[in-house]
Automatic annotation (TrEMBL):
It is found in: Cell membrane. One of its GO terms (cellular component) is plasma membrane. It comes from Enorma massiliensis. Its main location: membrane. GO terms for molecular function: ATP binding; kinase activity; metal ion binding. Mn(2+), Zn(2+), Cd(2+) and Co(2+) support activity to lesser extents. Belongs to the bacterial diacylglycerol kinase family. The lineage of its organism: Bacteria, Bacillati, Actinomycetota, Coriobacteriia, Coriobacteriales. This is Diacylglycerol kinase.
Length: 125
């Protein structure tokens, strides 16, 4: 049972539906997730064109997944903060800024990994 509710937990399959709904909502409403998806697609296309090896694919796909994960978590943190207060509270700003910094940090790391993977595939390393 869900705490504070008379309803039972959703089925395993229904939970996937909620996750897909959340992803669609994020894509429809958040500019940054669209940018991250575009960059991810470009990385996959570059990987196909350059015929990167299996380990490189693992690194590229892991980076794409982690950046998307971080962006989704950042978006949910921002929504929770907005739900908690509409005021310009210093702690609300702090929470949002730190959540955004986590995406930024991971994106820079993923970009560095991408540069190494694709430079290697081009014979530059």
């Amino acid at each position: 049972m869900i705490p504070g509710s008379n309803r039972e937990h959703p089925t395993f399959i229904r939970s996937f539906g909620y996750a897909i709904e959340g992803f669609r909502t994020a894509v429809a409403t958040e500019r940054n997730i669209k940018v991250q998806l575009l960059v991810g697609v470009l990385a996959v296309v570059a990987g196909v064109v350059l015929r990167i090896d299996a380990l490189s694919w693992v690194l590229v796909l892991l980076c794409i997944g982690l950046v998307l994960f971080a962006e989704l978590v950042n978006t949910s943190i921002e929504a929770i903060v907005d739900l908690a207060t509409q005021d310009l509270h210093p702690l609300a700003k702090r929470a949002k800024d730190i959540a955004a910094a986590s995406v930024f940090t991971l994106s820079i790391t993923a970009a560095v990994v991408g540069i190494i993977v694709f430079a290697r595939a081009l014979g530059m390393l």
